[in-house]
Design a protein that fits this description.
alpha/beta; four-stranded mixed sheet; globular
Amino acid sequence: MTSQAASIVPITLTVDDRTGLTLYAPPWEDEDGEEWQGFLGDGRKILLYPSTEELAAFIATGEENDLSDHPGYGQVLKATPDELKPSPENHYDLDQVYEWAGGEPDPVHVSALADVVDMVTRIADCCDDGALRRLLEGTPAYAELVDEDNSYQGKDGRKRWNELGDTIAESWERAIKRASDWLEWVGDFSETEFDADDSVWERVGAEPIAIRIGDETYLTVRAEIPIDPDTDEVEMAFLGSDGTVSVFHEVTDLARFCREATGHRLHKLEWWDELAELDDEDFTPDEDATFDLRKPSGPGTELVVELAEFCGLEADLDVLDGPNVDRDDWRALVDEVRTCLQPAD
């Protein structure tokens, strides 16, 4: 884990099916050149909150905490709840370790696993838990995991990956127990802003959709883009830019584009980068996200309006008013919308 000097970052920890939000200050040097790191705590335990609003409310009280003397805490005091949302790489799911270790050693899961073990080691350091520190730093399989140059490819790599899995099966429950003893869950976690059961698409605030026009089916992504955080006002946007919507015929092509492309309207969504962790099939539109525009329908009409507004079309949307839509008017409007659907590479 790398960091800028004197920074404080919001993170989430998931432990025993609960996900809480706290603050972490990566290593920094004080005026005497001494290195420190720390978490938002009350002098005894790390404080975890169920939402950015509740974390912001605590910060606003001005109550002394373990980060009060941090050189960057003044910026934290000015942060809005929206600014206290952790970035995708700052989610640490201790419960998922077993599943990751039981799967294939692909780079995404190896990196996520290493980040979690590294963060638990930092909890041990900050809370001066020698037993937890020895468990992680003194176990070769864990120490090797957090080595950035480590790889589990090839025959030797597979052997070491299996050894890591055995180590986790034997010792991770103890690591979770000791880490949990340092956590203070503040508030009601029955419904949290960071529900571990939420899908990635729910966190992103987007969904893959299918659009049927004539004999063609187009795949793309639709999302709600916040306009005004004070009023929760949003606008509908699509995978695209400059008056066009990027569309695909194959789910694999849509998945690849979402992982790799950056020059589109949705890339700056808060959790967009988490889509890189999804399998190709997770980009398949749900049945209720499939729109047949070959004839007028309620959901289809809403989608046509959203596409026309997103693409800046000077279309006559008034033809959609009323209980019945003329079929010729509908076909003309859909044909116009179709001109802004751009097949992408």
